[in-house]
Amino acid sequence: MARVVVIGAGVAGLGAALTAAQTGVETILLERNDFLSGLCIWSGLHGGGPVLEEMRLVSSGSIRWHDSLKRYALFWEHDLPSAQDNLGDREESFAYDVMKADQASWEALEGTGVKAMLRSQVVDVEKEGNRLKAVVLANGTRVEADAFVDATGRAGLMKEWCETLGQGCGMCVLKCPLFGECISPAVKAGAADIYPEGHHQSGGPRFFQAVMVLPESVEPWLRDEMLAAKGVYWYRVPEEWLGKDVTSQWCSPHRPLPLPNGFVEEHFLINYTPWLKVHLNVPLHILRQLPGFRDAFPVTPLSPDGQTTFLKRITPNDNGLRVEGLANLFAAGERARTVSSMTPAMALGDLAGYNAARCAVGLEPIVLPDDTILGLFINVVKLNPGGGYNAFIPYKPDPNIRRPEHPAYRQRGLVTGDMSRDIALARERIERLGLVGLYQQRLV
Ligand SMILES: Cc1cc2nc3c(=O)[nH]c(=O)nc-3n(C[C@H](O)[C@H](O)[C@H](O)COP(=O)(O)OP(=O)(O)OC[C@H]3O[C@@H](n4cnc5c(N)ncnc54)[C@H](O)[C@@H]3O)c2cc1C
Asked: Which phi and psi (to 5°) does residue 38 adopt?
C-alpha cells in the first residue's frame, strides 16, 4: 500500500497527515516531542475568515483539527473590540485553552487511520537518486515511504541566534538546541535552508508582539476585571506612550521590531488563557509601569525582557510545495513559506499532505488556482518572481497592528472587507472552480 510519512506534528504536520489519510494512503506522523500540536501549545488565538471557508469546502484535513480545537475555545473573536466588524466569522475565530491543544490533536486523529509516533525525531535520511527512500529516527529505526512531508517548522540553527541575541525564547521546549539539534529532513536530503531576508514579517530573526505573564503575578483587581470581561480586557495605554518609537528606547537594540510606527492602538488586549497574553511588545520593565503589572512575571522565556524569538528558515519549493531537487519530498507549514500563524500553516500542511499522497500513488502534484485565497497565498513564489519567499502575503487584516490584508486580494475580488460577504464569495468560487471535496477524493 502506498505510504506517506509526515515529519513534525505541529498544525501543518497534523493537516498534512489528516489530508493524506483521507485519500486512502497509509499515513505515519513522526514527532520528536512527547506531545502533538507543536507551537500551538503557545499560540492561543486562532482565526478563520474566508480562507477557512475555502479550506472547509476543499475538505482540508486540518479542518478536522480546527473543529476539535474549537471545543476548547475560551472566547470568540467577536468578543474582541478590534473584531466587531467581523461577525460573519463568528463560529471560526477564537482563543483556545492551550493546555488542551495536545488533547484536541489526538481527538482529531481518532478513527482516521493516521499512525502518530511520539519521541520519534528524524535525524537522517536515505536517498536513491533524487528520491527519499527512508528517514532514520534517533533510535536507529528506519521508516520507509513512497513520499514524505517535511513539517518541522522553523527547525534551523536556533543556536546561533540564541547565543548572539540571548533574550530567551518561547520556543525553548520545542526548538532549543539544548533539547536536541533541530533537524530538517529536507536539509538532510541536500535541499537548501534559507533565511528569507527583508521585511520583518518575512524573514530573519524577529520577536513576538506579545508578552506572556503568569496570571498570579498581576494584581488581583486586574485579574478580577479580566475574568468579569470574559477573559478579554482592553487596557488604556498611557497618553505619553502613544506614538513612541518602539524600535529605540522601548526595545533592546536586538529587537528591530514590529510596530514601526510606535503604539498604534490606544488599548491593548489581555487574553486569559493559562497565562496572560499581553498584546504589547514592550520589555518587561516597561510593561511593569502599567497599573496592575508591577510584579508581572514572564511565562515564556525566563529572560529579563520576557520576549520570544521568532525565526524563519525555509526550504525552497514550488507552488505544489515540492522541495527543489527532490521528487518525493514536500514542505509544509513554516518550512514552506514565511508564515507566522496557524491557519496558513494548516493550509500549507493540507496541500503538502495531499500532494505527497498523489506522489505516493504515482500522480503529479497539483497547484491551486490563483483566483482562490489559498492559491494566491501559496503561489506567492510564482507570483513574485525575484521577491520569492520574502513576500508574505497576509490575506487577513490584523486590527491589532492596523495591518490591512495585501492589496492583491482586493484587486482580484477575493476579499471586500465585509466578512459575511467574503465568506459567501469564497463559497461561490470554490463551487464554480469545481474544487468542492478536492482533498477528499480517494486516490487508492
Ligand atoms: C509564542 C508564540 C505565539 C504564537 N501565537 C499565535 C497566535 O496567537 N495565533 C496564530 O495563529 N499563530 C500564533 N503563533 C504562530 C503559530 O503557532 C505557528 O505559525 C504555527 O503553529 C506553525 O506550525 P508548523 O506546524 O508549521 O510548525 P511547528 O508548530 O513548529 O511544528 C513543527 C513540529 O515538528 C517537530 N519537529 C521538528 N523537527 C523534527 C524532527 N527532526 N523529527 C520529528 N519532529 C520534528 C517539532 O517538535 C514540532 O512539533 C505563535 C507562535 C509562537 C512561537
From this structure: 50, -130
